[in-house]
What we know:
Elements: H1 17-20, H2 34-54, H3 63-70, H4 76-95, H5 122-131, H6 137-152, H7 156-161, E1 167-170, E2 173-178, E3 188-192, H8 194-207, E4 221-224, E5 233-235, H9 245-258, H10 270-282, H11 287-294, H12 299-303, H13 307-313, H14 341-351
Antiparallel strand pairs: 1-2, 2-3, 4-5
Helix pairs in contact: 2-4, 6-8, 6-10, 10-11
Amino acid sequence: MLESSLISAPLTALTHPSIWSPAEWEETTSRPTARTLAIYGGIAAQFRVWLDEQGLTLATATRPAVNAFLGRWPARRSRNLGLVVLKHIFAEAQARGVIVANPVATLRADKVKNKAKDYLKVVEINDLFRVMDGDDLLTLRDRALFAVAFETGMRRAELCDLLVGDLTQIAGWWVFSHGVKGSEDDDVVSRIRPAVYEAVRAWLYASGPRPPEAPLFVAVIKRGQAARHEEVVYSIPEPMRPLSHGTIADRLGIQMRRAGQPASRHLSAHSIRRSLITNALHNGAPLYTVQRSVHHANPMTTEGYDANRMSVQSTAADFLPYDFGDKAGERFDPPKLGSSPESVRLEEDADA
């Protein structure tokens, strides 16, 4: 443990790796990837330089000063990521006696509301798969990758961590037994339907024999064309190296352009997960079913993807026999879960 005399020491004296190096942070609830740790390390380095420029140390940094540093990022998600890093740094410093009070202990992250443009509707997803109709190695990989992604809602880290041996059967259903980002619990199970299994099976057959411990999804590269009218030759250069996280968003953008989506529409890999949750809730799936399928620990997290619609779909007043002086005793019958205002009006017109 660092000596308490370091409380007023200059920043250069605070060199314990547990404070500044993400690789040394004790992770109890998550399993950050190498890329995530690199991002954390970059933010930690920026904060260290910023403190030095302001003439501050960890011991003299106040909450307003921390907020000033976080204010360098206008985007809420970026500020929230920076706050995650600062919470680690100050918690480690406090645990080692470098600081007495933690200025960010009760600082909360900004709420980030999902927008409609951040997910693909069912019809758009169907269009996406219609353009992935080739039988070359790259197309087979993309079709299997996105079929699993849109079917299970796995995060990109979970998709990249899938192994060939994770595909198994339970009670006659094909499932993936896999880990969940942010949890140290045992593997969870994500069921896939026959069409998704066939897409995965086609990819496994095309990619060649690989052991169970091999990554399910790997990079596919183009070797070129021998002549103008000959087919492009694809290959797998490193069959034991998992697909990089950035590839998922890149390939999603390429396939979206092919499906007719405008080039100005950029979606992240997490938009795939958001698409599953939002579309399932829109189509009447019970909240618990969706929560269990995407392995959310808190149902409020699941509901947050579609909070506005769900807040008006059913309210507490729907279950109370108010008559408000008109048609006494008649109870309001709310629209069925998953129905739209347009469909409700059509039903009313038909009754008339």
